[in-house]
Amino acid sequence: MTVPVVVIQEAGLDGFWIHRALVAAGIESHVVDPASIAVSRRHRRAKTDRIDGEALVRTLMAWRRGEPRVCAMVHVPTPEEEDRRRVCRELKSLIGERIRHVNRVKGVLFAQGIGDYEPRNRDRRDRLEELRTGDGRPLPHHLKALVLRELDIIELLNRQIETVKSERDALLAEMQTIGSTPTPVRMLLGLKGIGPGFAGALWSEGLFRNFQNRRQVAAYAGLAPTPWKSGTINHEQGVSKAGNPRLRAIAVEMAWLWLRHQPGSALARWFHNRVRRLGSRAKTVTIVALARKLLVALWKYVTSGVVIEGAAMKTV
After folding, report:
1. Predicted model pTM
2. CA dist list (Å): 257 to 123, 203, 239, 250, 294
């Protein structure tokens, strides 16, 4: 008698290689978001591997019975999709690393009364020889050695960032030439205010997926609203943040730039009207709402060709 084998596992640091190995062996495998599994609400709940395993089995049984709300199954990307998004993620990581080293140099020099030194300028090494502390002394020997080592790291990061940017641009150029119809990347790059960085990150982090509706788009980015309704209580708790944090950060950052580069769009007018009505304190909350609206509008634009109302295109 043939018995089917069904496996469930939590999404974690192991990535998706185990899931792919099981599927290749003909085993039905599911990857679940561990935060979506219901647990005891007691103040001190017991947690062991056995309890977690039993909860996974119960969740899998309910899922197989046709209860979709019992958990959130993870959409496993293909190896190509997973590899493609590493470029934008690595670029963001390298830029963050460079910022940390630049700030360290500025911090140690500021403690000596030097506040006008920029480690990213081309004359950084020549200027270092000319620097004097606030009380007129030359830089101490060990401090200068520290700064020189930091400059070596910054210059290495500059080269790596340029290399990764070249890889990203080559990847975007390749994705723009696929087929005869306009590709999503080409459509995104055609909008004013969206450059290669935003286009690549938007596509590789989220818009490459197939969403059924706008709620799924917002939920995947963690920008879906979280209501609290019980009896006479009815208020919003803000966005869920239960999604892709990189895509959410990109959407919020892009929303600020959208106001600058697309002031005549309907979304920008909606933002300014709402802030004018609610007051300037509502800017932070409203920009998150704008990020959700903008992300959904871009998804409709790249999938269905629905042009964003009032959006300006780049001039060739």
Report:
1. 0.83
2. 31, 18, 21, 11, 11
